[in-house]
Amino acid sequence: MKLLLLGLGTWEIVIIVLVVLLLFGGKKIPELMHGVGKGVKSFKDGLNGLEDSKPSEGKKEETKKDE
């Protein structure tokens, strides 16, 4: 049974999960995921900030050209 996640099968995913459990332990995984979630949220906020600033800069230039 192949999963569509990077062409990995069920056993490969099970082995990866076991290795992560061995490396970080059961108590550290929630902390690790919390940190990853904060990082992803910060990254998305940064991208949204970039997208928001680009159109406003273009509008400022257009109003200066019209004057």
Structural class: mainly alpha
Got a strand count?
0
What Rg do the Cα atoms give?
22 Å
**Percent helix:** over 70%
How many helices? The count is 1
The ordered string of helix (H) and strand (E) elements is: H
Biggest β-sheet, characterized?
none
Share of β-strand residues: under 5%
Poorly predicted runs: none
Q: Average the pLDDT over all residues and give the rounded result.
A: 77
Bulk shape: elongated
Distance between the termini: 65 Å
Describe what you observe in this structure.
The chain is built from 1 helix and no strands. By secondary structure, the chain is mainly alpha-helical. The protein has a domain at 25-67. The termini are far apart.
SSE arrangement:
Blueprint: H1 10-66
Features of the shown structure:
67 residues; mainly alpha
Question: In a few lines, what is going on in this structure?
Answer:
The protein is mainly α and 67 residues long. The protein has one helix spanning 10-66. Helix content is 85%, strand content 0%.
